[in-house]
TrEMBL record:
Residues 301-312 have a biased composition (Basic and acidic residues). InterPro entries: CvfB_fam, CvfB_S1_2nd, CvfB_S1_3rd, CvfB_S1_st, CvfB_WH, NA-bd_OB-fold, S1_domain, WH-like_DNA-bd_sf. Residues 155-222 form the S1 motif domain. Belongs to the CvfB family. PANTHER family: CONSERVED VIRULENCE FACTOR B. SUPFAM superfamilies: Nucleic acid-binding proteins. Coiled coil: none annotated. It comes from Paenibacillus plantiphilus. Residues 292-312 are annotated as: Disordered. This is S1 motif domain-containing protein.
Length: 312
C-alpha cells in the first residue's frame, strides 16, 4: 500500500517516539502521527486506526486523526482564509492548516479574484511533487453533483456562490440547503448590477427555469417593482443635485448609466419615463431636471423682476 496525500488509510500503530508522537505502518512504510494530530484518546502500539494523510510544513508525508472538509478527487466549497498577491488564496480545509488555490487558478482581473470570507468550489488534487493543492471545480464537476431546479423557483429570490465570473455573465451554484449540493444558474451581464467575484455570495431572482433544470438569474427586481425602486432612487439623486438637475438622460450611453446607477439603460428609461408621466421631471437634451426645481427657479426670477420694477 502506498501512502498518498489526501486519502484515508487504515494503519497499525507501530511505536511511540517521544516527544514526537506515534509512527504508523501500512505494511510497507512508516508515517508520523504527531501528538497534536490526535483526536480523542491516545492510541496504543498494536492498535489499528484510520488516519488522513497530508504533507507537513517540511514537505513530509504525515498523518492526522482530524477530519478534513475535502479529500483527494472530491469537490467541496471552502472558505477563503487569506490571500497572497503573488501566490494565491489560502482555503480552510478543516485541519488547522490551509489549502492553496494557486494564482494560476484564479481570474486574471484582480477585481474578480476571491477575498477572505468568500467561498470557492474546488477540487482537491496534487501539484507536480504530490503536495495537496486546490483547483477550481469545472462545470462538469459541479453538474454531476447539482440537482434540477424546480419550476416553483421562478420569480423567487435565491442565494448562491459565483463559480465562474465572465464578461458575458456570472455562473452561480445556488445553495441547495437540505435538498442537496445545489442547482446551477447564470446571471447574464445585463442582469448584473455590478461585477461579481469568484466565490462571492450573491442573492438573485430566478427569471427562467430551463428544461435541463438550470436557471437564469437576475440581481434586479421584476420590471414593475424595479421601475418603482429605480424611479425613487433617481428622484432622490436629483433632489440632492445642485439645481435639481443631472447630466444624464435617454441620450446617455448605456455603460455610463450602468456605472453611475447600477442599472441597465432600459431600466433607466423606464424609471425616467415614470417620473415624466407623473410630472416630476423633464428632459432637455442630455440633461434631466426636476420640474419643481424649474418652477422654483422661475418663481425666483419673477420675484427678482418684480423687486426690480418696484425699485425703479
Amino acid at each position: 500500500m502506498s501512502l498518498v496525500a489526501g486519502t484515508y488509510v487504515n494503519v497499525r500503530v507501530a511505536r511511540e517516539v517521544s516527544p514526537y508522537g506515534y509512527f504508523l505502518n501500512d505494511g510497507e512504510s512508516d508515517v508520523l502521527l504527531h501528538y497534536t494530530e490526535i483526536v480523542g484518546e491516545r492510541p496504543q502500539p498494536g492498535d489499528d486506526i484510520e488516519v488522513f494523510l497530508f504533507y507537513d510544513t517540511e514537505d513530509r508525508i504525515a498523518a492526522t486523526m482530524k477530519k478534513p472538509l475535502i479529500t483527494l478527487g472530491e469537490v467541496a466549497r471552502l472558505a477563503v482564509a487569506d490571500v497572497h498577491p503573488r501566490i494565491g488564496a489560502f482555503l480552510e480545509m478543516g485541519l488547522g492548516r490551509q489549502l492553496l488555490l494557486p494564482m494560476s487558478e484564479q481570474p486574471e482581473m484582480k477585481e474578480l479574484r476571491p477575498i477572505p470570507g468568500d467561498e470557492v468550489f474546488v477540487k482537491l488534487t496534487h501539484d507536480k511533487i504530490g503536495r495537496l493543492v486546490a483547483k477550481i471545480a469545472f462545470e462538469e464537476d459541479l453538474a454531476e453533483l447539482a440537482f434540477r431546479a424546480p419550476e416553483s423557483w421562478r420569480n423567487t429570490w435565491v442565494d448562491g456562490w459565483v463559480t465562474k465570473p465572465l464578461k458575458m455573465g456570472s455562473f452561480v451554484l445556488i445553495d441547495g440547503g437540505v435538498v442537496g449540493f445545489g442547482a446551477m444558474g447564470l446571471i447574464p451581464a445585463d442582469d448584473r448590477t455590478r461585477q461579481l467575484r469568484l466565490g462571492e455570495r450573491v442573492s438573485a431572482r430566478v427569471t427562467y427555469v430551463r428544461e435541463d433544470g438550470r436557471v437564469n438569474l437576475s440581481m434586479t427586481l421584476r420590471k414593475e417593482a424595479g421601475r418603482v425602486e429605480d424611479s425613487d432612487k433617481l428622484l432622490a439623486f436629483l433632489r440632492e443635485r445642485p439645481g435639481g438637475a443631472m447630466p444624464y438622460s435617454d441620450e446617455t450611453p448605456a455603460d455610463i448609466i450602468k456605472q453611475k446607477f447600477g442599472i441597465s439603460k432600459s431600466a433607466f428609461k423606464r424609471a425616467i419615463g415614470k417620473l415624466m408621466r407623473e410630472g416630476l421631471v423633464t428632459q432637455q437634451g442630455s440633461w434631466t431636471k426636476l420640474v419643481e426645481a424649474d418652477a422654483s427657479a422661475s418663481e425666483a426670477s419673477e420675484t427678482k423682476a418684480e423687486s426690480s420694477d418696484k425699485t425703479e
